[in-house]
């Protein structure tokens, strides 16, 4: 939640079932962040301390989320950016958070072929080198080296 000056003053976060260890830890983090914001601690300071804490990382729409505390920092950073505070020192759009998800570029089939060798099984398909093996594009013949 934000105050009348568009500054965050309260954080709510939930995770999984109530009563679980992870849920309790996240509630504690939320309460401490809220207490810090109400005590006048700059949001960027909070983001800086929470950002990068690593546990079981996951991907969220192309952004690496390293842990529950990291998620709180990411969301706080996003809200600061959206609320008109501009880009924060730790915002996801900054240089600190590089583009972590890049769609792989696919190569044309002829770049993957191995000297245009024909398949020894069907004599129709072309063999391509894939994951350390030679595979036929027509019949599925596969030979690993």
UniProtKB/TrEMBL annotation:
<keyword id="KW-0237">DNA synthesis</keyword>
<comment type="similarity">
    <text>Belongs to the ribonucleoside diphosphate reductase class-2 family.</text>
</comment>
<dbReference type="GO" id="GO:0031419">
    <property type="term" value="F:cobalamin binding"/>
</dbReference>
<keyword id="KW-0547">Nucleotide-binding</keyword>
<comment type="function">
    <text>Catalyzes the reduction of ribonucleotides to deoxyribonucleotides. May function to provide a pool of deoxyribonucleotide precursors for DNA repair during oxygen limitation and/or for immediate growth after restoration of oxygen.</text>
</comment>
<keyword id="KW-0846">Cobalamin</keyword>
<dbReference type="InterPro" id="IPR050862">
    <property type="entry name" value="RdRp_reductase_class-2"/>
</dbReference>
<keyword id="KW-0560">Oxidoreductase</keyword>
<dbReference type="GO" id="GO:0004748">
    <property type="term" value="F:ribonucleoside-diphosphate reductase activity, thioredoxin disulfide as acceptor"/>
</dbReference>
<dbReference type="GO" id="GO:0071897">
    <property type="term" value="P:DNA biosynthetic process"/>
</dbReference>
<keyword id="KW-0170">Cobalt</keyword>
<dbReference type="InterPro" id="IPR024434">
    <property type="entry name" value="TSCPD_dom"/>
</dbReference>
<protein>
    <recommendedName>
        <fullName>Vitamin B12-dependent ribonucleotide reductase</fullName>
        <ecNumber>1.17.4.1</ecNumber>
    </recommendedName>
</protein>
<feature type="domain" description="TSCPD">
    <location>
        <begin position="1"/>
        <end position="80"/>
    </location>
</feature>
<dbReference type="GO" id="GO:0000166">
    <property type="term" value="F:nucleotide binding"/>
</dbReference>
<dbReference type="Pfam" id="PF12637">
    <property type="entry name" value="TSCPD"/>
</dbReference>
């Amino acid at each position: 939640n934000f105050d009348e000056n568009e500054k965050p003053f309260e954080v709510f976060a939930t995770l999984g079932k109530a009563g679980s260890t992870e849920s309790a830890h996240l509630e504690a983090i939320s309460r401490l962040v809220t207490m810090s914001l109400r005590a006048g601690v700059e949001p960027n300071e909070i983001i800086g301390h929470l950002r990068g804490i690593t546990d079981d990382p996951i991907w969220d729409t192309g952004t690496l989320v390293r842990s529950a505390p990291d998620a709180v920092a990411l969301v706080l950073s996003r809200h600061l950016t959206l609320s008109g505070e501009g880009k924060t020192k730790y915002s996801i759009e900054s240089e600190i958070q590089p583009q972590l998800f890049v769609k792989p570029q696919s190569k044309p089939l002829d770049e993957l072929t191995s000297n245009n060798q024909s398949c020894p099984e069907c004599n129709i398909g072309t063999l391509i080198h894939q994951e350390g093996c030679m595979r036929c594009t027509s019949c599925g013949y596969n030979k690993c080296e």
